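Researcher: Good morning. I'm working through a list of sequences from a screen, and I'd like to move beyond sequence-only analysis. For each chain I'm collecting a predicted structure so we can compare shapes side by side. This is the next one on the list. No need for commentary yet; just the structure.
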Amino acid sequence: MSYYKYKPRDPQVQVNWTEAASNLTKVVEDEKNLRIEKKTAIDDATREYQKQLNNQPQGESTSIREWGLQFGDEAQKAMMMQEQLLKSGMLNPSQYTQMRQNLVDGTDQAFSLMENYQEVYANKMERMKSQDIATSSQALEVWMMENAEGFANFNNSQLAINPETGKVTAAMMRTNSESGERELTQDPNQFVAVSSLQGQILTEYDKFDAGAVSSKFVDETGAWTTVEKLTGSRLEAGQLLTSIDPTSKTLTDVDRAALAKAYPGEDMASIIDIYLSAENAAIDGIFGNPYNLTSILTENVVMTDGGKNYTFTFDEAQANANPEMILMERQGERNVPVFDKSRNKHAAAQEKAIRSWMRVDIRNKINKEEKAVSVKDYNPPTYKPVPPADVRKEERELEQKQTAQKTWNSIKGQTADERVSSFANILGTQIAKNAGLVGINPSEDGLSIEFVYNAVNSERNRTIDISAGISDEEWAIIGNEITGLDNPEDAMAAGGFVTGTDGNSKAYNPKYIGGANRKGNEQRFNNELSTFVKDGFPETGGEPFLGQEQDVVTKSLNDRYGDYGLEATSVGYMGGDTTRITIDGWSGDANLPATFTMDSDIIVDSTALEVQEKFEKWFKAVMKRTNRITQIAESQGFTGRNKKASTTGAGATYGPCTDGKKPLLNSRGEATATLVNC
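Model: Good morning. Structure tokens for this chain:
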């Protein structure tokens, strides 16, 4: 029977309180057992840690044993504090576990440190005393042990336990100046992780055998032998002088000057200097390992110029204040020398000291030898019938031509420096003097050579163009200008061409230091050029030229020198008279500025003349650098260097004249790339 709106309850929603009570009892029992288990685990861990403290390493070093006993006492106090805080509820189990683990790990590292210290102490002493460089330690290893023992000295340091984290650190002690009590230092350089201290003790730093490096280099450096022969005479024997010196494999001062001129801004001398390049490479090789450097400084160089022995520090400020201090840096368990110039201001001086010692050690081992051997090389002259005077004259002239031609042929492959003396030798020959040749002047690019004759023979003046790839035969034909050897075969037969290592004649070298000129001719030319420049500054009413308005000065300069690339501009303003001068094609260098600026209305006469003289020097120098001297000489008719080209060559064979140029012909009558003005 059912009633309106009544529905029976589902029997499944009823609570089984008997079962619930049973389950709750089990949960409470499990929690109780868990707490008992945790407490037991903590108690067990405490007992194990206590055993660890009781079994700390023992050894011969009194200081480190006392250091360990002091730490054991502090560790027990820290352990009790942690347990009290846990039991009082001020530490939760998670915090307690972390702090305890830090303490256990730190203790394990500290005891391992002490144990290792005792194990390696004797070995370190043996390495320090060893006289065999293969088994001996460098000063860095000794210093590291001393530094570590400083931390392990009971009176000076202690193993500090951070009460908040339980971490263990070695730290130095100090005396408080106010209280007189001993306390931990505040200097961060005097705190070190136990693991880092352990690496400091265990790491070995071998002595670097710098002498072996220098000896190996000397052994591998080839001998450099020079031989000089002194010819004997009827009364005195000749000598053969032999010198063996590897360091002589270097460039002369003349070589260096020529390279500096040919390659401005580039240290070409250092690159190609045979001996120095090899020596520097050998020294550079030791810098790959910074511990090589610490060894050389402390074992070989030993002390600074100030007389203080090299030593080490971890304090960057101390290293920068003392040149004898080598800066060290802790990188985890490694201790690394620092030669970074941005951190160690004495790093450059320390590197220089190392290089200097190595260089001296190398050169002290190099064997240099000089010996002289007497040789009987004098042969009495043999007499033959004297030919007629005219025959002797022809023979002498031919010999002079061949000698001059040989000198000319050698110029093709010579260096810029070697050519200086060759040009002078040619001008000094009797054949050149007879011809009236007073100047041989190559262009700056080496692609033309100017031959200048005296006033009597000025019609022979000419400029000969030279191709970059000129052949030996073509070069020899140009020498005909000097020698008069008309036959190209005779010019080639004179020889003298410079050969390379492959035995072939060297290619044409367009580098020149300068040409050669007889004093009289060159002086005459310079006087003519100076007169030409000075005439451009005429006096006005008895006053110096530079006493006028800028526009007058500007116009006069443009009229006088405009044909030679000069451009004068008035740039003065507000009552000032200033003239700015430039020369087309000249951008300036360290000695000659691109622009010459001068006051055009100078009141003091002596100052005006001084400015005019400065302009003269600047103008003449720029004219020479821009190769406009030839243009001036030709247009003004200078006798010292008349540039009017001749259409004939003394004995030379030329092709037809085209556009003002005619080619030299080879032995087969074929046109060469060498052109002569016609």
